[in-house]
Hints:
A five-stranded mixed beta barrel has the order 1-2-3-5-4. The protein is rod-shaped and about 90 Å long. The protein contains three helices and five strands; from the N terminus they run αααβββββ. It is α+β, with helices and mostly antiparallel strands. Helix 1 runs antiparallel to helix 2 (about 25-45) and helix 2 runs antiparallel to helix 3 (about 50-75). It has helices spanning about 5-25, 25-45, 50-75; strands at about 90-100, 100-105, 110-115, 130-135, 140.
Amino acid sequence: MDIDAWIWWLIGAVGLGIPLVLTAMPEFGMFSVGAVAGAVTAALGFGIVPQVVVFAVVSVALVAVVRPIAARHRDGRPQHATGIDALRGRQAVVLERVDGNGGRIKLAGEVWSARTLDSGQSFEPGEQVDVVDIDGATAVVM
């Protein structure tokens, strides 16, 4: 039984597609597309050397072009802080005197219990403070 070269290339493309699915490494998909390009070259009647060259050129071109673009899109997504992470670094207004033992601030439109980062420090009502951490339901300010 004699199998045409383009069928071997398609078998190779499927073989490269399996690790793509199992490992989620997109490079295997790019090599699989290169193998399909090799199959097309074989189906058009070109010899083994042009088939391998087309496979290599298409695969390398995809890795060289698509991979950096995908990495840029993956790394370029802004990370949105949520929950208490979104409150760190924000400013608040002191409502009741805040010292190492406690107090009240208005943070993000809500009243929070607060204490100072430095126990010897204190803030009077109306002052602006920076939230450095959230400890349970208490904002740690400075």
